Amino acid sequence: MSEAPKIRQGTKYAKVLEGLRQKIQSGEYTGLLPGVQALGKEYGVNLMTANKAVNMLVEEGLLYRIPRQGTYVKRMRSHTMAALLPNPYGPLQGYLIHGVEGGSRSIDNHFIFKAHRDDPAQELEAVKSLFNDNKADGLVLWPCQSRLDSPAVDYLRDHDFPVVMVLAVPRQDNPEFCSVISDEQLGGEMATEHLIEQGCKKIVCVVPNGGVDLSMKNQARRSGYRKAMEKAGLEVDVDLHVDFEKHGAREGFDVSQDLIDQLKEYDGVFFFNDVIATSAMKMMERSGMSIPDDIAVVGFDNIELAELFGISSVWQNFKQIGITAAEMLMKRIENRDLPAEQIVLPPELIVRKSSRRI
Question: Based on the domain organization, do 233 and 308 belong to the same domain?
Fold first, then answer.
């Protein structure tokens, strides 16, 4: 911050200048500063005088301008980190929240959490609130609908708000934003290689039909499946599908009897996630299929259901992703000039009775 120029006391602009400075330093003004017309009216001065006072505070470094958007109060450190995720009650988000919270506290920061429920309007509102009210120094964001061109992301980009994306972000060689993701392709490869090691010769991948996030994950996990099959010299079969259904706040996957009948042709199956695997296994057993003798099963995500039903699953270690994201965010807060980077963490295969033949 540059040294404040000498001010002629008693002048109208000095009155405006000191009034603005006090409100900024007290925290009454945060985020977007009122326009010079509103300031002129508030302090009883003309536009030229109000603009002169604002210009001086820009020179001091208390304010800064964003072209075509307005003048903003320079942010003061709140020593708080925020996380903005789709669902506050999801099993995966819970691990991630604990990781971010633990990571932020380990570097002496407070932590706040908000949910956008995959609603772009809620996501933008939450981002604006965190920035304009100076509630947080930076943000760990699981982007809404896995989009990096949403209004909220545009807002973060325009206002240079430190952010680290997590999970629902494509793998990138030259990322625009910092991010921490799991190597989902490696996860699909590990799951399939395990089925091959257990003696499976005819293995299929079951994926959901759905939105952008599902399609992106499908592509990564299926690529791993195909890589492992081709490496073993086994035939890569056509993927089987389940329909993703969403009715208001309720969502799920439609596992049909037709899918179960098709699975009888295989001796190994890699399911897109543990939710689909759990539903399918119940129906497979009711249809007389023995698991893992007739068909070995591996899921993905390692949620509590997987442990409860003994399902082998790929664990992405969401807690470590959260810790890593908090540490990366702190570096961005302290040094805005650091180049963006993407950290890709390896998953782990948890083997249970659904696939253990040997």
Answer: yes
Q: Which two tokens stand for residue 255?
A: 């596992």
Is the same domain home to 118 and 194? Answer: no
Query: Residue 63: inside a domain, yes or no?
Result: yes
If asked whether residues 138 and 57 sit together in one domain, one would say: no
CB 131 within 8 A of CB 84: no
Beta bridge partners of 181: 344
On the question of pLDDT at 12 being above 90, the answer is no
Which one has a higher pLDDT value, 149 or 222?
222
Q: Which two tokens stand for residue 218?
A: 């499908």
32 vs 100: CA distance, rounded Å: 28
228: tokens are: 């492992």
Q: What is the residue type of 114? A: K
pTM, rounded to two decimals? 0.78
- Our count of domains for the chain comes to 3
156 within some domain: yes
**CA of 84: how far to CAs of 29, 119, 142, in Å?**
24, 12, 6
- Over the stretch 111-145, which tens digit does the pLDDT of each residue have? 999 999 889 999 999 999 888 777 898 999 999 86
CB-neighbour burial class of residue 9 (10 A; exposed 0-12, middle 13-18, buried 19+): exposed
- Structural domain of residue 111, as residue ranges? 80-183+319-347
pLDDT tens per residue across span 298-323: 999 999 999 999 999 999 999 999 99
Maximum alpha-carbon separation in the chain: 91
Q: Are residues 121 and 268 in the same domain?
A: no
Cα separation, 356 vs 296, in Å, equals 7
pLDDT > 90: percent of the chain: 54
The torsion angles phi and psi of 180, rounded to 5 degrees, stand at -130, 120
User: Which of helix, strand or coil describes residue 122?
Assistant: helix
**Is the pLDDT reported for residue 252 higher than 80?**
no
